[in-house]
Amino acid sequence: MRCLHLTIHGRVHGVFFRHGARQVAERLGLVGFVKNCPNGCVEVLAQGDEESLKKLRDWCKVGPPLARVERVEEEWEEIEGANFKEFKIF
Fold this sequence. Notes:
Blueprint: E1 2-11, H1 17-27, E2 31-36, E3 42-48, H2 50-60, E4 68-78, E5 87-89
Parallel strand pairs: 2-5
Antiparallel strand pairs: 1-3, 1-4, 2-3
Helix pairs in contact: 1-2
C-alpha cells in the first residue's frame, strides 16, 4: 500500500475541488482526506494502491471544470496499512 500527499496550487477554492476529489477517491477505493489550506491551495492525502493513486493525481492536475490548476506538488511513501477508514473532506 502506498501513500500520496498532494498540494494543489491555483484557483482551487470555491470550485468544488474537494467534492470532486472525494468522489474520484471513493470511486477508486482510496482512503484519506482533502482540505482547503489557508494559503489558497488544496491538500490531499490518499492511501491505496499505486495505480488508483496515480489516477487521483491525474484528476487533481486538472480538477473540476471551474478550477485552474497551476501546479501540483507530490510526495510518495510506502505504508504498512491504511490509517483512515474512508475519504473525508475537511
